[in-house]
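Subgroup meeting minutes
Present: P.N., E.W., G.H.
Scribe: E.W.

1. P.N. recapped why we're keeping a running log of single-chain structure predictions: easier to compare across weeks, and new members can see raw inputs and outputs side by side.
2. G.H. added today's entry (160 aa).
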Amino acid sequence: MITIIAAIAENNALGKDNQLIWHLPADLKRFKKVTLNHHIIMGRKTFESLGKPLPNRTTIIITRNKNYKVDNCIVVNSLQEAIEAAKSDENPYILGGAEIYKQALEIADKLDLTFVHHKFEADAFFPNIDLNIWKEATREDFETDENNKYNYSFVTYLKK
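Output recorded in log:
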């Protein structure tokens, strides 16, 4: 099973200037729990926004730069190469960015999304989710609290 994991605002915003726009500790905690001990696949810019490999995960970076190297990471030149590099993991996670998400929608089996119920100014956007292809399987809705500034939902979609 290949899973896309993302946090998306109401206007499909993902980020701006290669950074997340919001801070939702509940989402970060869930992200860590879900991706721990799995392969995580991302584009170079997404990796560079993180600054380092995430602990207890196998990081796969997609870049067109044939000379790009990062210690303790697997570097590949296409999404297909990334999927091949993650074949020992029964559930690798695709972390973005926007172009990688667009490509991955065709091959993913599951979408593990956090919807942030707010609109943000952004320069990177998640592709539209075609409900003819994807079926909502689970949803948990949460209200703003002292740690999380926005209402949000954890939603899982499965490919029909």
